[in-house]
Design brief:
The protein is an alpha+beta fold and 381 residues long. Helix content is 29%, strand content 24%. The chain has eleven helices and 15 strands. Mean pLDDT is 88; it is low at 28-34.
Length: 381
């Protein structure tokens, strides 16, 4: 029974080398960092209360909501991927890595305080190989070539007998490497981009189903900065779909705003429990036409100055928000609800426990439970 890599090599006139196979996430190899970088451009204050310059406690509001209000957040989105170096393959005079991946994107719903369930799961298997695996690169229809290749691959006995399918082949650039560049990084980046596209897709599906509104928000685990860029009309639709979505990041660069807020890292470190910073408005080079409000909130006291602190983001959708910032009362409401999502925690299960929001942790755990084991996946190749 022919393995996947033998099939790909035969179909693309390449030579595979039976290289050592491993999961990137389980070994000490260079990884691409996707969290925020220094150099974010802060334009103005990100909220309507221009007099607010220190910090603010949300404990009273959080307690009030527990007694008298319904949770603002009903849906929880997380995306994850496992990437694997599964071989090296030669085209012409050059050797290229073959990168495979398992992607998981899920939305879980909490319809009431007694129930928590999955409402959307996408968990495709993908492969990333160099563009020049298509011998007619630059001449014929590259998309058609790789679509035909994945169709033939899924007809192989090794996949049919296990009822498995690969959803896409994601070709990465085979151009000559620049300094500090790696083909492995290009392949992993393609898989990461596919995960981000799927996250965006499930948000659109929730909006289309009229699930999100001002009383039913969604928390997305991680930054919103990596949403798809595009034409102005397309971006307008994307921004509207994110009107009831809040991004919550456990990992962040405390110096990201330092070009404009000189003492930002100290202000974050000195945050008292249940306090938030003012919101700042920023744009990124990646999506210069989208403005964000970002603020920091401490949900637990810990020994480390940045543990227990979350970075919170909201896309500014309407013109008045882009001019005046996000309504300060809305920021307080979001922050108080996030405080109420923090317990119980996963002590000892994750070294990020002090930053976990429990429904997000459950969603992340659900995604990981859907993966094939590393040994099973690698042995397909």
């Amino acid at each position: 029974m022919k393995k996947i890599l033998d099939f790909i090599a035969d179909e693309t006139d390449g030579k595979n080398f039976k290289s050592y196979k491993y999961c990137f996430e389980s070994v000490d190899v260079p990884k691409i960092e996707y969290e925020d970088k220094k150099g974010i451009q802060v334009k103005k204050k990100g909220e309507t209360d221009k007099s607010f310059n220190t910090t603010k406690s949300l404990k009273y509001l959080a307690d009030k909501l527990v007694k008298n209000g319904k949770p603002l957040f009903k849906y929880f989105l997380d995306g994850s991927r496992r990437t694997y170096k599964v071989d090296d393959i030669a085209y012409g005079k050059r050797l290229y890595p073959v990168i495979a991946g398992q992607i998981g994107v899920a939305v879980c719903e909490r319809p009431d305080k007694h129930n928590f369930k999955s409402v959307n799961l996408k968990n495709p298997l993908v492969i990333s190989i160099p563009e020049n695996a298509n011998a007619q690169e630059g001449i014929g229809n590259s998309g058609l070539f790789f679509n035909n290749l994945i169709k033939k691959l899924n007809e192989q006995d090794i996949l049919v007998k296990q009822n498995l399918k690969f959803n896409k082949i994601l070709p990465y650039s085979s151009k000559t490497l620049k300094e500090n560049d790696k083909y492995e990084d290009r392949g992993v980046a393609k898989i990461q981009d596919e995960m981000i596209a799927l996250e965006q897709k499930v948000v659109f599906e929730l909006v289309k189903a009229k699930k999100l509104n001002d009383q039913s928000f969604l928390i997305k685990d991680g930054s919103l900065e990596y949403m798809k860029s595009g034409e102005a009309k397309e971006l307008s639709v994307i921004k509207t779909n994110y009107d009831c979505v809040v991004g919550v990041s456990k990992a962040f660069n405390p110096e990201a705003l330092s070009n404009d807020v000189k003492d930002i890292s100290r202000r974050i470190a000195e945050l008292k429990c249940y306090h938030r910073t003012p919101a700042f408005m920023y744009q990124t080079e990646r999506i210069p036409d989208v403005k964000f409000a970002v603020w920091y909130l401490r949900i637990r006291d810990t020994l480390s100055p940045f543990d227990g602190v979350l970075k919170i983001e909201k896309i500014l959708v309407r013109e008045i928000q882009e001019e005046e910032g996000l309504d300060s009362d809305e920021i307080d409401l979001i922050s108080a609800n996030i405080i109420n999502e923090r317990n119980p925690v996963c002590y000892g299960k994750d070294d990020r426990w002090q930053k976990h929001l429990y429904p997000v942790h459950l969603t992340e755990s659900y995604i990981k439970s859907q993966y094939l084991s590393d040994i099973h996946f690698i042995n397909l190749f």
